[in-house]
């Protein structure tokens, strides 16, 4: 069991396998992309597997694979198969933009992946192209169909942006009527590569009020332990609705997560500039015992919430320039 200094059990790892992405979403990065990490700067699959095996031994039982876009990494599938064989790991999930995943849905099902987070900010082709700078909406919808055909649970992640996709909130809610999906609306965060200032006009409260105006019978559900979303149900709908207060950070107090960036940097909070480079430790010959000691020491410094983390990270603004660099 891994405990932080606030007595919270840490059992969830978000592992970013690459910073590269095949979209250029306006809320994540500039049009030209980022200065991508060179291959030697990324953790190898062997390093990632060693780290995951150690963390599972320490008490991590859920791992989410993120990016960038995970499927841009060509050796992802063999790594996922190896990961699925780790004894003690009870759940593997992944977050994807869906451009490349449709052909692999059956493989994901076979390796035991039961849940996928799918990024989808609009159902309108023109707005999709405006937001992502790519004409690829059909690819995402094909992946959604593929996941549904394999009975893989899908959580649709929608970043709500003033002046860009607020007109898509209700059409996305309506997806939950006939599909057993969870549609989750996320406050925009400041990790956009410096492309613009974040507007909080569409915060959690306003998103909720907007949905209630169309669906007055919206009912609050009981939130699972450690849930980042406040969850709701519309009577008669197969799916449900979630709202994530990612910028206002109202869910931090029960956080059970660790993050590891594509370069091996450990972060105990999304809003923290991490300082422990696990990749460099491994390449310097660190034993598992030393890695475990370093991990425990870092986790004991895990901040209470995102506000404390940001206040204590002097490099917060410069280090966290894009979600792609810290794991979406």
Automatic annotation (TrEMBL):
Its EC number is 4.1.99.22. Residues 5-217 form the Radical SAM core domain. The keyword Iron applies. One of its GO terms (molecular function) is metal ion binding. SMART domains: Elp3. It is an enzyme of class 4 (lyase). It comes from the Bacteria. It catalyses: GTP + AH2 + S-adenosyl-L-methionine = (8S)-3',8-cyclo-7,8-dihydroguanosine 5'-triphosphate + 5'-deoxyadenosine + L-methionine + A + H(+). Gene3D superfamilies: Aldolase class I (3.20.20.70). It holds the Pfam family Mob_synth_C. One of its GO terms (biological process) is Mo-molybdopterin cofactor biosynthetic process. InterPro entries: Aldolase_TIM (IPR013785), Elp3/MiaA/NifB-like_rSAM (IPR006638), MoaA (IPR013483), MoaA-like (IPR040064), MoaA_NifB_PqqE_Fe-S-bd_CS (IPR000385), MoaA_twitch (IPR010505), MoCo_biosynth_MoaA/MoaC (IPR050105), rSAM (IPR007197). This is GTP 3',8-cyclase. Keywords: 4Fe-4S, GTP-binding, Iron, Iron-sulfur, Lyase, Metal-binding, Molybdenum cofactor biosynthesis, Nucleotide-binding, S-adenosyl-L-methionine. Its cofactor is [4Fe-4S] cluster. It comes from Arachidicoccus rhizosphaerae.
